[in-house]
Amino acid sequence: MALIVQKYGGTSVGTVERIEAVADKVIETKKQGNQVVVVVSAMSGETDRLLSLAKDITSTPTPRELDVLLSTGEQTTIALLSMALEEKGHPAVSYTGGQVHIRTDNEHNKARIVDIEGAKVHKQLAEGKVVVIAGFQGIDEDGNITTLGRGGSDTTAVAMAAALKADECRIYTDVDGVYTADPRVVSDAQRLPRITYEEMLEMASLGSKVLQIRSVEFARKYNVNLRVLSSFEDGPGTLITDEDENMEAALISGIAHNKDEAKLTIVGVPDMPGIASQILGPIADANIEVDMIVQNVGLDNKTDFTFTVNRNDYEKTMAILKKTADAIGAKEVSGDNRIVKISVVGVGMRSHAGIANIMFKALADEGINIQMISTSEIKVSVVVAENYLELGVRTLHAAFGLENGAMSK
Ligand code: ASP
Ligand code: MG
Q1: Cβ(70) to ligand 1 under 6 A?
Q2: How is domain 255-408 classified at the architecture level of CATH?
């Protein structure tokens, strides 16, 4: 008998009819001889609705109280789903995060799971029940309700699967898997049957927002087989798993893109030790995450320094950078928030030269100017003007033959 954790997101439980359809899927899985634990999100739009209620009262809600409020969304769906299961003749029991001891730290609104006690859940499963658990929430050492950050139900599901030593964690969502590129951009993008944790982390952080990134990190750490699949159509979805020596690693698995980018440049900085830290220190202190960094020393012993941040942080970063420029005697500061990052991702790249070159040539042939480049073992990323997003992604998808699925070596 296998133990399966299933997670259903907001759209999958968005109406009473859909909750009933979820109950049918759960029952089907159980009838196949499995034990089933279900993790659910709030009904679609509910978390936003609760947030806006809070905002109607104050622009700075107390983080603790916000968690008390937001956790009610998931509490509603666990109860409704359990009722639907019972109504269809299948014993079920619902639990909030606190009730199954999803222990977190006390960082309200973005808490991290530190421990889960699986004994109670195992006991209920052994009695033949379906266990329905509220996603996105936990409880801190002092018994306060915490939440895990937007999209956190994915992480609850994976953490639950790890704690229960489940055979598989299935994330049901409104897409039927992970694709070689965003299907809204590339019409012949292909579903990937499997992808490694590492590749998924790149794809997720680069904008293929299928899963909360943290859930993939969790899955990698605890070796949880994670499957993304559609809650509306049958199909195998995409299995996110370890690199398997028996299977040939894909050279290129996909083209990811990220629209939430902005770049800032500080020009004519004196070239001396400590400059990078003087520029980036105040930005880090303001809790702004820097992604790509390019530094180049010119002939006049002056340095130009360019980096990217999330587009939402653009104005704030610009203000900080202007102050720094005055303090260190830089010549000028400029920026552009109409850029995008496009990346070619594949674990097989590790042992294969020449990928970057194919990429640059393909973009050049389309007259697309590359503004910045960065590489890691398993990806090459470029920054280009925003209006080249679609053309760039399509061009690269074709250049690597991804209309036939992942490119093998
Ligand atoms: N309900 C929460 C959100 O909307 C958590 C989740 O759905 O994963 O972000
Ligand atoms: Mg989600």
Answers
A1: no
A2: 2-Layer Sandwich (3.30)
CA-nearest residue, atom 9 of ligand 1: 150
Ion ligand 2 nearby residues (CB, 5 A) = 9, 151
pLDDT grade for 211, boundaries at 50, 70 and 90: confident
Q: Measure the CA–CA gap between 373 and 296, rounded to whole angstroms.
A: 13
Ligand nearest to the CA of 44: 1
The per-residue pLDDT for 397 is 97
Global pTM reads: 0.86
C-alpha 240 to ligand 1 mean position (Å): 21
Pairing state between β 130-134 and 92-95:
parallel
- Verify whether ligand 1 is closer than 6 Å to residue 137 (CB atom): no
Per-residue pLDDT, 353: 80
Do 3-173 and 255-408 have matching folds? no
Question: Residue 178: pLDDT above 80?
Answer: yes
34 in Cβ contact with 2 (< 8 Å): yes
**Residue 45: left if φ>0, alpha if ψ -120 to 50, beta else—which one?**
left
Residue ranges with strand state E in 50-105: 92-95, 102-104
* Nearest to 26, CA basis, from 140, 228, 170: 170
CB 46: neighbour CB atoms within 10 A? 19
Residue 86, Ramachandran bin (φ over 0: left; ψ between -120 and 50: alpha; else beta): alpha
Phi first, then psi, for residue 233 (nearest 5°) are -125, 150
* Pocket residue to mutate for ligand 1, from 11, 41, 67, most atoms within 8 A of Cβ: 41
Domain 3-173, CATH number (from 3.40.1160.10, 1.10.260.40, 1.10.10.10, 3.40.50.960): 3.40.1160.10
Give residue limits of the domains in the chain: 3-173, 255-408
216 in Cβ contact with 200 (< 8 Å): yes
* H or E element in which residue 276 lies: helix 275-285
pLDDT score at 213: 86
pLDDT band at 206 (very low <50, low <70, confident <90, very high): low
Residue pair 275/225 in contact by the 8 Å Cβ criterion = no
